[in-house]
Amino acid sequence: MTHPYAIQRWDADAAANAASHWDDNDRAALVALMRLKPKNAEWSELTERVLDRGSAYALWNDDHPRDLFGNEDGDDALLEEAVRDVADWKQAPFYLHTFMDQSYPDQLRSVRQMPPLVFIRGKQVDSEIGVCVVGSRKVSDAGIRFARAITDHLVTNSISVIAGLAEGVDTVAHETALEAGGRTVAVLGNGLNKTYPQSNRALQAEIADRGMLLTHFLPEYAPTRWSFPARNAIMSAYAAATVIVEAGERSGTRIQAREAVAHGRPVILNSSVVLSTAWGRELLDAPGVYVAASADEAIEHVRTILGHRAKIADWLDPDE
Hints:
Layout: H1 12-20, H2 24-36, H3 43-53, H4 56-61, H5 64-69, H6 75-89, E1 95-98, H7 106-109, E2 117-122, E3 130-134, H8 141-156, E4 160-163, H9 169-179, E5 184-187, H10 201-210, E6 212-215, H11 227-238, E7 241-244, H12 253-262, E8 267-270, H13 271-276, H14 278-282, E9 289-292, H15 295-316
Parallel strand pairs: 3-4, 3-7, 4-5, 5-6, 7-8, 8-9
Antiparallel strand pairs: 1-2, 2-6
């Protein structure tokens, strides 16, 4: 089992040769391949196939799309559309980063099910250190106080606040970070040409202006029932740790917690989550899971986690 603080590395040497030949034809072919099978479950497999082949364009031309996804009509038209889109996106207010581009976030290279591409709007920060503050859409007054205290601590210590732009805890975390003059990152369960929830339209725009929007969905993708669990996986991967402020038995936040554990990312559970949910209690035996009875205790756990992470990073890169 992966140690909770393990920092896995992108094998740059293994990908360097392929990346040196990577161009807009490959980017367009990758987009077209994603549209052939527009559900997240197959996208990590697509990443592996493209990496093995060394070129998304070669994979497309060698009829691998039919081997991988089954017969599809309109393949040529789909590729032509993707070529136009990749060209148009260069003028859009966001940026495309494929997993073969150096600009692709390192945090996502280090986990299983690496997405083939991401879109970013706002300012990207290299090697960003951030902590997720997430939880229920219907948050109690106690949960609001807990989330605000954690967020204020993160901002004070120049740690990015990451959340999923959902109503409730996520909104509290984003708004508190902005009010305190800190950096916040919203990981979306839809494409950048869509807004969800509508109640957070202004907040999404403000984060795009002052922080960063991140999504692994193509711009036209609307939110679906399966896109939010997929969003949670990306969010847990991007963050150094996840703090779960409040969550019920059926809350989608439980997926975030499980994915974080699978990614080797520490999880801090409010004790109320452990007391009120079976999944919270089940996670207690997982490596890297902490319980906090108060915001102050959660903050101490954050300090411990980031301190361990920094020591391991120094050990891996003694010259940096």
